[in-house]
Each structure stands twice: as structure tokens, then as C-alpha cells.
Amino acid sequence: MYIVQGKPGESSLYPYTQSLLPEAAKISNDATIHHPQEAFMKVTQGHWEVREDEVQWGQKIGEGANAVVFKCKVRGVTCVAKRLKKGMQARSQSYKDLIMELDILTTVALQPHSNLVRFIGASIWDPENPIIFEEYVNGPTLDRYLLARFGNRMGRKTIFSWSLDILKALDYLHSRDPIILHRDVKPANLMLTRDLTTLKLADFGMCKPVDRSVRDVVKHHGHTGTLRYMAPEVLSQRLGNYNEKADIYSASLVLWYLATCQRPPDNDLQRIYERPELEAVKWPSFEGLIQRMWAQDSNQRPSARECMDAMNAFPDKPDISSGIAPGRPTCCNLQ
Ligand SMILES: Nc1ncnc2c1ncn2[C@@H]1O[C@H](COP(=O)(O)OP(=O)(O)O)[C@@H](O)[C@H]1O
Ligand SMILES: [Mg+2]
């Protein structure tokens, strides 16, 4: 049994800089290209620009490793504004992540998905300090919600439905060309609506678009993501290349967390063959799925679409037509 511990908000790691990489890795092609001008052009061309006088600022509601998030109104519509923390330079990794987030959001904006936070627009009048406006998701992050349950397990309807939400979001990203790798799937980047019926994937700063034609040859390196949810091939560069199946691995640990209400154990290079206790899931069909999703060999892991199909074929698939929201934990005031 693992013990639920720790505070929400484990921080994400960044790819090693080239100078820290072993010689062999330097020739590989992982330069995550951040072109602020390209992202800004997408904003202008898509008419996504938000003027300063269209924004009414509200209170600060969140802070991640790179960004600070405020509630606000844009043209009267409630949303959130994400901007760099004070003191971050335009050449910093945090800046690059924000630009990547802008790039991804402008890419997916034309086909919004109900399990991804929606793009509202951006202020780019100060190119060193862009502001991204996104849909305000009015419930807690999954991280906060699960920690507040103190190990109290949820019903299968909720586990099933929230898992499908995560897989739908990944299927959307992975089905695109270029494929969008999220690379930081974890409960702190999943947000719940206030009625606890829907999960939305957020935080696209670590995403990486990969042309489908080079999916199997392009090399990515760097321990990218958050250690606890990181796939073995991401953690250990010796295992070779990685692709969108690294997101499937991270999702398997989130699914395990949903099913058990226990935070997955710590992860490090010494434990890349270890997995959390499968029997703790106490739902054989779901255990089978999780086991395939965290296969050591990433080629053996199903795609997000195959995971969804497998879930819909569960012989004991719960009937979610009558609602899926769990009871609220009474131990703390989640907003
Ligand atoms: N669209 C949103 N709606 C409501 N809260 C949000 C939203 N986006 C972010 N937040 C809050 O801000 C925190 C940090 O946001 P995140 O996008 O994860 O930033 P970072 O890139 O710094 O990790 C989240 O954990 C959440 O509490
Ligand atoms: Mg985050």
C-alpha cells in the first residue's frame, strides 16, 4: 500500500541543455524550436489578439513552475490569463514554454475539444511578456481533488468517465499531424469542472509537435515532464527514442491514481522496471488496461483510441447515463 502524501504541484523538469548532454546525443535532432514570431503571427492571422482595454483583471488563482494565472474577464467573458512570473527573461525556458503553449493553443483553436482547455486569445503587444487567455475551468485540479479525498476511493462510474476524458484529450492531440506530444500528463495539469463531471487537460508548455513522417526516427532527449509520471524511455535515455506512447504511460499512472486514490510512488532511474501495485485497482478489466498502458516496451502500449475502445468493450462497463460525479470530499473547501 502506498501512502497518500505530499502537496499538490510537483514541478516539471526541463530537457537538458545541449551542453549537459552526452556527445552522442548532441547530434540527434531534438531542438524544440520556439519561434515567438511564428506563434505571434498565428495570433494575428487568426484574429486572436486581445487588447489591453478589453481585459478586466481579477485575482490570482494559480501558479505553476513558470507561469502565474489570474482570473479575468475578456470582453465580459470570464476566463484566465496566464503570463510569465515576474523576473523571467524572454530567453528563459519559462518564456519558451509559454510560447510553446501559445503555439499549440493557436493550432488546436479552430477545432476546440471539450477535454482540452479552450483558447480565448492572447495579448502580444509586449513580445517579451505575452499573455495567454484561456477558458476558466471552475473546479479544482485533479491533484488537489484527489489529495483532498485522503485515500477514499471513488466509484467506478467516476473512474471510468474521468479516465475516458483523459484518453479523449490524448487521442485528439495524438491524432493530429504533426502529432502533439503533451509530455507532462499529470493530475496537476488536469482540471475539473465545478460539478465534477468533466476533466480537461491543460498546460501545453511542454508539448512537442512531431511530423508523422518522422515519428519513428526523430530523437527527443531530456528528462521532460514530471518524474513521478515519466515513462521509462523518457527517464532513461539508454532505452532509446520516445514518442506519443510516453503520454500513454503517464496516463496509466493517472488512471491508477484515479482507481486507487493513492498517489503513485516516487520514480527514479533505479526504478524504471517497477510499477505500482496492480491489484490495488480492484477492478480486473481496468487492471488489464492499465497494465498494457504501462508496458515497458512503448510499442506494446495501446494508442489512446485503442484504450478508449478497450474501455467501451469492458464486460462490466459502468452505466454512466445517470451521472458520474463523485461526492465532494468534506475535509476541505475545494473551489
Ligand atoms: N484554465 C484554467 N482555469 C482555472 N485554473 C487554471 C487554469 N489554468 C491554470 N489554472 C491554475 O493555475 C495553475 C498553474 O497553471 P499551469 O497551466 O499548470 O501552469 P505551469 O505551466 O506554470 O505549470 C494550475 O495548477 C491551476 O490551479
Ligand atoms: Mg502545470
TrEMBL record:
Statement: the UniProt record of this protein carries the keyword Transferase: yes
Signal peptide: none
GO molecular function: ATP binding; protein serine/threonine kinase activity
Residues that coordinate or bind ATP: K82
InterPro entries cross-referenced by the UniProt entry: Kinase-like_dom_sf (IPR011009), Prot_kinase_dom (IPR000719), Protein_kinase_ATP_BS (IPR017441), Ser/Thr_kinase_AS (IPR008271), Ser/Thr_Kinases-Pseudokinases (IPR051681)
Gene3D superfamilies in UniProt: Transferase(Phosphotransferase) domain 1
Taxonomy, superkingdom: Eukaryota
Keyword set, alphabetical order: ATP-binding, Kinase, Nucleotide-binding, Serine/threonine-protein kinase, Transferase
PANTHER family found in the cross-reference section: SERINE/THREONINE-PROTEIN KINASE TNNI3K-RELATED (PTHR44329)
Family affiliation: Belongs to the protein kinase superfamily.
Name this polypeptide is given: Protein kinase domain-containing protein
Organism: Guillardia theta (strain CCMP2712)
